[in-house]
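Onboarding guide, step 5: your first structure request.
Type a short instruction followed by the sequence, for example:

Predict the 3D structure of this protein.
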Amino acid sequence: MENAIEVVGLVTHYGDREILKNISLSIPKGKTTVILGGSGCGKSTLLRHLIGLLKPTRGSILINGRDITVMKESELNEVRKKFGMLFQGAALLNSLSIADNVALPVKEHTRLEDSTIQIMVRMKLDLVGLSGFGGFFPSQLSGGMKKRAGIARAMALDPEIIFFDEPSAGLDPVTAAGLDELILKLRDVFKMTIVVVTHELMSIFMIADYVIMLDAGSVIFSGTLEELKASGHPRIKMFLDRQAENENYNPEDYLKIIAGE
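The system replies with structure tokens like these:
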């Protein structure tokens, strides 16, 4: 299996505290990889490393064979043009319309004419189910619609890799299921590499091709979803059982939500 990202011997400290402890992992190309774990396990810190926002104490992060940890900022910015990112709160600019939010990366990184950019923006909004909402402002949208607008902006430059930070956070089950369906669409239609940081069990079981689980700054599992379910690791079993109990997890009900039944 070809890998889009390879992490080798990654160690990170916040002050004297070791957050990531000699992590090594691979993220397969064209698949949806879910990074999961409990609060404080290091998954958000790992995500910030993957998009180049943090420098590790030591270790390498190879994206398409190039180590981003040793790049100059100008080189890293070129690599980031191939990334899309949906932040946890969507991170839309409240002073701009939804269309202008989506257009922003295109205006910043290309010299395309405004008429071409407007066509691109309409296509991205249509892709995420927000056709006709370009003139609205973030304050006029629901939480789920803001997330969709954030995805449209993340897709603006047709990235090779798209990152999601807790995409279902704060959403009701129906809205969360709709976002999961959209993630599956991006994978299947655009053959994108998708990396999702989440602890939502229903989403994990719906979207994951590959799973990486962290615990106390270390990787305790990497493999397929079926391998995760079959794992006898006590921390994994505890996580899955507790999440299922907390979420009243019922796979059949969730599939009905996805299907619109």
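Each response can be followed by summary notes, for example: Residues 253-261 have pLDDT under 50 and may be disordered.
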